Amino acid sequence: MDVDRYIAAHRATWTRLDELVGRAQVAPGRLSLDETEELLRLYQLTSAHLSHVRTNHRDQVLIGGLSSRVAAARQVIYGRRARAQRALVSFFTVGFPLAVVQARRAIAMSALLLLGSALATGIWFNNSPEALDVTISPEQQELIANHEFEQYYSSQGAGQFAAQVQTNNIQVSLLALAGGATAGTLTVAVLLSNGFSLGAVGALMHQNDAAGTFWGLILPHGLLEISAIIVAGAVGLKLGWAILAPGEDRSRTEAITSEARNGVTIVVGLAIWFVVAGFIEALVTPSGLPAAVRILIGVLALAAAVLHVLAFGPAALAQARSDDATDPWESERADLARADKLTSGIVAGTPAPTAPRAP
Q: Which Pfam families does the record cross-reference, listed alphabetically (predicted)?
């Protein structure tokens, strides 16, 4: 086959590659998923054509044209991958930890609601068995303490159970986030409900001399899982507060948009916490390991999550403040607005609005 016939046979492929590369160079996000896959396929095919021409035809004009096409396509493909990798790294080193640090006060309030209600419920039922009997019948208490509570963690296959737990936990976090749209009332209800359930079961197990079983089964996964629910609750509380009191330096719409954007950043990061907690609950909690070892695994998982946030969050917040030369003792709401440019683009993929300075 001569050069002219080879060009005629493959011209359509090269033309289509040029079209996709040109569109990607003008607007990198313009190509659909199918078009991106087509671009990759045509790049590989044209690279093979270039290799064939170099070996069999040695036509310098054709080799030069194909080399330019392959180089342009490579730049588009690997440039897109590099941007995606930078966005992923930025999410874990800036976006997520910064958003969590900014929510520190709301996290404290969320923890007070959930853990406070759990502690209050536990103390109440532990000191008032009659109230516990009204809530849960003595017969049901005995069943739960003797085998149902422990059996729950081994009632299904590990993989199926892990998927179920992870899905449920993510749904709880999304419900807590969505609860912010009710001015935070639904979020508060979710936190108090989870705290009540935790306290009631804890009191039940203590009343029936099964405290060791309770703590040995709840702590390995619960340390990280409950912490994630608390942080998710903080997202809903902040969104609810933005509705009620957006502040003088931004409109209610701006406040809600900013809090929702940062809330989504947190929930996306929390999905990883929930996945890890789910695997611990499915594989470690019901295992035959000594309780101390299982609890240590839970402690290490929570410590890793907390250390990740502390390793990057405060530094990202300090950088956000220094960029605008703000007062380091200003309110958290102003911190959020000024640091928004670091977190919004990671999730939304768009430039963040310029935050107004505090008066």
A: SpoIIM
